[in-house]
Amino acid sequence: MTTPSPTTPCPPSPGQPYDSAGRPLPVRPGKVVAVVVAFLLVLVGGAVAWWAMRDGDGPFAGRPRVNDGKAGLSYAIPEGWQRNEDKLLDAFTSAVTGEGPGGAGGSGGSVLAGRAGGIPQARLKQQTERAAYSNAEFFCPDGGKTLRRSEATAVGDRPAHTVVVEVTRPACGTLHLRMTIISVDDDRSAFLIGLAQDKGDKDGGGGQGAAAREEGRGLVDAVIADAALTR
Known about the structure:
Blueprint: H1 36-40, E1 50-53, E2 64-68, E3 73-76, E4 82-83, E5 94-99, E6 107-117, H2 124-139, E7 144-155, E8 158-169, E9 173-185, E10 188-198, H3 208-225, E11 228-229
């Protein structure tokens, strides 16, 4: 498995252009990834976010958090996960990543954040579904895609939409992609993408393999559900 070079195209943002029929314009696919964020980093620059703790209730009480000033988002760093301190590709402003219990052969997890232009509340569902499918194609080119969830939600007092897409392809395994886009104001939106990749169960699809897969997906979903706006 090779590492994408700094010239690998960025995943499409929620503001990606579409043609007159409402189809996303073509995105040149990136190379297949394993633990996705670890392979997306360009090894230059420094951190794009500062880090803090948040007290209180919830599944990540007392855990360090990413406070991403560019996207205006705060989200947790699960136990055993790491913040990425190198400069990300332009599509993202911050990210965290971790390995599942299965290690290199198990389920990895990643959460990435970013910002985009304003999206009216009436178009959140359409834009989130389009962006989720386009990112699914980037991370696992030519994989079979299944829409598992699409629902209106909120982050703080702002409207948002969440989409879950499952992608399957032998070269990728099974990729769980969860995307939430928040309409922050008329001029700005913020988004989170969660990725959990099952690279194959060594025990035939049950036991530790299934546990690793569910833990990776559960952590990704929980981090995004716990996210908060900071401005």
